[in-house]
What does this fold into?
Amino acid sequence: MSTKHTNLVVSSAPHVIDATDTGSIMRDVVIALMPALAWAVYIFGYRALVLTVVCVAASVIFEGITRKILGRSQTLDDWSAVVTGVLISLNISVSMPYWMAIIGCFVAIVVVKQLFGGLGENFANPAIVGRLVLAIGFTSHMGNWVVTNRMSLAIRQAAADAVTGATPLALLANGQEVPSNLEMFLGLRNGSMGEISALALLIGGVYLIIRKVITPEIPVSFLATVAILSAVMGFDPVFMLCAGGVMLGAIFMATDYVTSPITSKGKIIFGIGCGALTMAIRAYGAYPEGVSFAILLMNIMTPHIDNWTRARINGVEKGGAK
Amino acid sequence: MKSGKTSVFLNGFIKENPILVLILGTCPTLALSTQAINGIGMGLCVTLVLMGSNIMISALKRIIPDKVRIPCYIVIISTFVTLIQLLLQAYLPELNKSLGLYIPLIVVNCIILGRAEAFANKNSVFDSMLDGLGMGLSYTVTLTIMAAIRELLGAGTVFGYTVTANLITPMSIFILAPGGFFTYGCLIALMNKLTEGKAKEKRAADKCMGCAAAQLCSQAEEGGAE
It folds into this structure.
């Protein structure tokens, strides 16, 4: 239908249309992840880049093949498989064998995303589930935290064999010396490839907020909850914010449109829930780190949060219309 | 269609497979299918209890008052379960240990109560025995296959023997709860594919026959809720 040369346009909503589409949003997310990826390559070497390329290729290929087998239209141009691939690679250890990373991509794209209906229908963040399946499925490889010469002294001294060593959160749990807050903030430490530098992740986060790809509610409430709870529990808030996957999770994983609430109020509840669960797992759980479990649990809660925070219809009393 | 006794016996393997089509006894299936040997052990215990209780309930079907039939079935079933457990404790203490709580829980296993309600109280003693044997053996085979898949993927072994020569790192999530659900879902999907959905249709019609509340339930008249 062409409405180009008429003065009066009659159409249904939405009335304001711009160039933003799923593809441009996802491309912005990929761009925002580049500082973290560049930092990973600087710290861990070229294997970080190769692993990322493998994950992206695997995710894209799985997405294409699955949709072809299921007889659905191809959606590769929305870039969502690329984002999932990058996020999976940034969420695993750099020493992870390639075939294991590919299994993670399979779980994320085929099982979590496409079997539930593709982008927009998945109940959980594909990259989170992919990471968790790898973390539980290949515990020893996932916990193989590579130590390099570019990391802080505390990390290198604690590394038993000078190749792999405990992450800062594990050092803290064992009561050993941890890197300083500045070293933590810059990312002179080991861990999952993309989680190590809070600075690089914050740059990406600010870019996403300026580009209006994400709104600040979830990251801010998530990070604030972690900071307040760690102060209450007697941990160093700055260390807790920079350690583990909090920054990566709060900025890039918890803000996934599909698996987070719609309203502002709902997003704040979601962020607080993520932060509280993260700190509960860190302080009392069997695992040293709990960001991905926290986000997955809150993903499952999202439909309920949306239901609780449903916007009131104008002119209708509270609790009136359902 | 095979006639008479053979079809009663074979019914359980594909068309009314208790695990994959009737979706009965899910809890022990998921919990015990971590090792193939557990699958065989649990399966045979269930088979013996199922045969015994089917024979007994079929024989007593005219004596048991309709209103209190479920408690009566439970008493009969738990008698056989107690027998099996005492036998296991005496002769196979290791298997008894690895099956643990799931042996006494056979009492409330839906497969046994379901077959008592759906088959044994309407059919002859011999047919009921065949039904119990067929259902029990198909439960055993299915549980063992599922357990072997999980043991292979999760620990790299089958029946305790290493088959991957330690070349591949086993994916330990498969012997944990999530792996159980993955494997179960994939097997059900495979079953539906193999039977082209015929087994699924059968399930909808049969669902209420296995349900103790069928007489009280309005959905039973409409062929069951989905």
The first helix of chain B runs from residue 4 to 10. The CA atoms of residues 17 and 138 of chain B lie 7 Å apart. The radius of gyration of chain B is 18 Å. Residues 220-226 of chain B have pLDDT under 50 and may be disordered.
